[in-house]
Design a protein that fits this description.
mainly alpha; 8 helices; 0% strand; globular; magnesium
């Protein structure tokens, strides 16, 4: 029963079973979580996100063992819990268009996996499964934060 429950979490409550773009469908579950966390103090946002990332490591690890040790495309918990990191502290994104922009950038980085995201993906086990999405979220944060800074600095003079 614990294996089934673990797999249910790892598959994003079934979102990872989507026949089309399971990673994107799973990532969508991270949007309401990120939205909610953006309404909280930064320390709480950071704490909850860190806790979820840490808890996701063993969940993804044991789920990957059920898929012969691979980062199976259906394992989407890592995408769900990493997305709030992509918007951390960027309250301007607590708007549907802002959140959609951050989501698109996150999916771009997670799908394309440019360096250093690619190198993070080479780490094995649950830590590696979560690490590449965490690095994609950090890359997203950097791009979106820079975009917001430039927007405010040069377009709203």
């Amino acid at each position: 029963m614990l294996e089934t429950l673990n797999l249910w979490f790892a598959l994003g409550f079934g979102a990872g079973l989507s026949p089309i773009a399971p990673g994107t469908v799973g990532s969508l579950l991270g949007v309401p979580l990120a939205w909610w966390l953006l309404g909280r103090p930064l320390a709480q946002h950071a704490g909850v996100t860190a806790l979820l990332l840490v808890l996701a490591v063993p969940v993804c690890h044991f789920a990957s063992a059920q898929f012969a040790g691979s980062d199976h495309g259906g394992i989407v918990l890592d995408e769900i819990v990493a997305f709030p990191l992509a918007v951390m502290g960027l309250r301007a994104l607590r708007h549907p268009l802002g959140m959609a922009l951050a989501f698109a950038v996150y999916r771009f980085f997670d799908g394309l996996k440019p360096p250093p995201i690619h190198y993070a993906e080479l780490v094995s086990g649950g830590f590696g499964i979560v690490l590449d999405d965490t690095v994609a979220a950090i890359a997203t944060w950097l791009v979106v934060a820079l975009g917001l800074y430039l927007w405010r600095r040069y377009l709203f003079v």
